[in-house]
Amino acid sequence: MSESVTFEPKYRLDYQAPAFRIHTTNLTFELDDHATRVTNSMELERLGDDDTLTLDGDDLELAALSLDGVALDAKAYQRTKDKLKIFRVPKRFLLTVVTIIDPARNSSLEGLYKSAGTFCTQCEAEGFRRITYYLDRPDVLSVFTTTIHAPKASYPFLLSNGNCIEKFETGSIQTVTWHDPFPKPAYLFALVAGDFDLLEDSFTTQSGRVVTLQLFVDRGNLPRADFAMAALKRAMAWDEQRFNLEYDLDIYMVVAVDFFNMGAMENKGLNIFNSKYVLADSETATDQDFINVEAVIGHEYFHNWTGNRVTCQDWFQLSLKEGLTVFRDQEFSADMGMRAVKRIQDVRIMRTHQFEEDASPMAHPIRPDKVLEMNNFYTVTVYNKGAEVIRMLHTLLGETGFQKGMKTYIHRHDGQAVTCEDFVRAMEDANDVNLSQFRHWYAYAGTPEVDVDYQFDSTTGSGSLTLQQHTPDTPGQSNKPPMHIPIRLEFVNAHGERIQVVSEHAPVELIELTERRQVVHFSSPEEKVIPALLADFSAPIRLRFEQPEDDLIAILNGAHDAFLRWDASQRIYLNALRNAIRQDDSVELSERFIDVLETAIRNQNTDPALLSLLLQPPSEETLAQEYKVIPIAAATRVVAELKSLLALSLRDALLARYAATDWQQRSFNGNAVAIRMCTNAIAQLLAYHHEDEVILRELDKQFSQSNTMTLAMGALAAAVHAEHPAAERYLAHFADQWGHEKLVMDKWLAVQSSAPGSGTAQKVELLTHHPAFDWGNPNRIYALLATFTHNLNQLHAEDGSGYALIEQAISRLNQQNPQVASRLLSPLLKWRSIPEPQQTQLKRTLERLQTLDNLAPDLHEKLSQALA
Ligand code: ARG
Ligand code: ZN
């Protein structure tokens, strides 16, 4: 039976300022696997008249409690499951709480936990309450001093936030004290104790502060840490140049741990990272891994200002720090090279995962209004759509105006816990603009749809674009007002040359769509004028604009903006896929389009990275977005058919281009990366020719002779996804070679669970018993099982095997690690868009999950939302 009565959501509008201040927090940890003793002494100040102090706590054993040095008797306080109330407290007082916790039994990886011999913490969002009783909310900022005691032999490094102020040994026990001068909320607290290899470097800030940089990795992994260290220095320099923001402590530490629920955490002065976002060398990491390391290192570093110095008032404001920081890390990556590719990759994330979330039962605005389990809101909506909203501000205000707004924001709010509203107001005030309508982006969920109607009369030289917008209803929100949508655009003529058109003497380059229906008139002397809308994906919307293939090809050849050119190719592919599904016939591409591709492939001047994107048709998940009820089997069929058609029609050109690969080139630089992207994209297509001896030889060569993980993985993935007969041989060889490298074996697990062929669920089930897999490690679960939940065809297999596999995994993880369980659940929530007979099976699966014993709030929230 589900006990929904015990789950109480919180509402954004119920926010109340804290009733107490915690001036200082003095923590002492006596580390022990099963009985770590935490002594927490806080200098508190009561702000109002209510003299009851209510602290948060979760799963804590209380060992002692005293106020101003006097132990409290039982009548002076009250304990419930998740609160500690202390009655009749004075105006200012010192409260000391001693708790005992069990880090070795903590499998949720929230709070203080021990894994693989290391103690570490994860406190965002509400993990600190699993360490001690506290005002565990982001608007309570305190100065922390942390003392750690532990046996030196097992834990030579004892780390916490800020500066190390004392260190000594008593027998075998080492004691280290850290002091963080910057007041911070508890979610930014961190502690690490373990044995590591240490990579040390330094960075001198623009004002001359010499910062010690320390990177802690598992013993033996030092050579794999160089890239992350270099990326950190690039990030520090970039934030000074582009945002004029400089680091503020004398030490910056990054620790890589193997057991971590998320990517990384920006704890003040002591970032804790999932090791997959730190460790990278060309033998074991792909180029994409390198790119991810740089992005995440940047992201956590950039939080020092956008998140730490200026933090969130409450968790509903999460996008204040995450949307902004994602925008900043995206710009950092773009400025480090391959801006266009980075943008297109970010757009792909939006269009597949974020648009899907916006259409799901868990749809929420970037600033949610109602939250049951905060961990459920670290989403592509809050992060990536949040970043798109910041990007739109950047588009509307320009780089100069945006930076003026940033300056006002930081200046006004340094040291404060603030809201999204404060951010928008800073942008408004600094630029003297009115963003009232723009604020809707924070308030409304769902992906706005913009329909376009286009007319051009060459005899009069006048044309018009009619735009109509509508945002679909989402749970709890209907009849939404029109949004403020910046639509960048270009025009090309019939020869695929970029042209300018004018409206009232000004070139038409940006339309600010604010009405439900808006008409833009323009004039041009050209014979033919083809509009190309949404340059740089200037707004997170769905654009509905049917343009003939000839026009799309003109855009593909002539638009200046790389996103527009790529998008034209994707629209051509999508049309071909949808037609084939509609007519229940094989996929067709026009000769004209094939010619365009062939020319691009044969032209040595075509940027190989952009070419690789052109050669990747939309995924099944992207195609699925086009349907209310997803024709799953047909979608899988036509996507595979399209790739094999491309391989067939372009075989010789592809092989010629492929031959240009330099198999010995290993370095991670823009050009080498671009060429490898292209090589892999070509392999993904050619592998559909199962009988072709030449291709088999090439794939074999790529798999075994290239000495980069990028190319080896490229060949392996190509073979597995195209169900090429060489796949089994490659898989076996790969496992032999890399069996001892956990992060590498994650790739091996993931490639198998994303295979389209039938019986994948059974194979994945078998792999859960393979030594490379571990139910206790989130990386393994994400690689094998979360990847499987995105395998549209096999997750929704008609025999129910996909659902059974994931149901079993979620049941097992419900209590062990609810955050991970909850991530596996998300792709199952869209049961209403799955055809029968699977729809009924899926719904039953969700209903059964709802009856799990001790159902975690993370799962309860999603299930009740989906089944409502
Ligand atoms: N603030 C971290 C980051 O984005 C993520 C923390 C995620 N925590 C969580 N409980 N889901 O950099
Ligand atoms: Zn973040």
TrEMBL record:
The keyword Repeat does not apply. Residues 44-188 form the Aminopeptidase N-like N-terminal domain. Its EC number is 3.4.11.2. InterPro entries: Aminopeptidase_N-like_N, Aminopeptidase_N-like_N_sf, PepN_Ig-like_sf, Peptidase_M1, Peptidase_M1_dom, Peptidase_M1_pepN, Peptidase_M1_pepN_C, Peptidase_M1_pepN_C_sf. Signal peptide: none annotated. Keywords: Aminopeptidase, Hydrolase, Metal-binding, Metalloprotease, Protease, Zinc. Residues 461-480 have a biased composition (Polar residues). Residues 227-439 form the Peptidase M1 membrane alanine aminopeptidase domain. Its cofactor is Zn(2+). GO terms for molecular function: alanyl aminopeptidase activity; metallopeptidase activity; zinc ion binding. GO terms for biological process: proteolysis. SUPFAM superfamilies: Leukotriene A4 hydrolase N-terminal domain, Metalloproteases ('zincins'), catalytic domain. Residues 461-481 are annotated as: Disordered. The keyword Metal-binding applies. Residues 446-545 form the Peptidase M1 alanyl aminopeptidase Ig-like fold domain. Pfam families: DUF3458, DUF3458_C, Peptidase_M1, Peptidase_M1_N. Residues 550-868 form the Peptidase M1 alanyl aminopeptidase C-terminal domain. It catalyses: Release of an N-terminal amino acid, Xaa-|-Yaa- from a peptide, amide or arylamide. Xaa is preferably Ala, but may be most amino acids including Pro (slow action). When a terminal hydrophobic residue is followed by a prolyl residue, the two may be released as an intact Xaa-Pro dipeptide. Belongs to the peptidase M1 family. This is Aminopeptidase N. It comes from Aliidiomarina sanyensis.
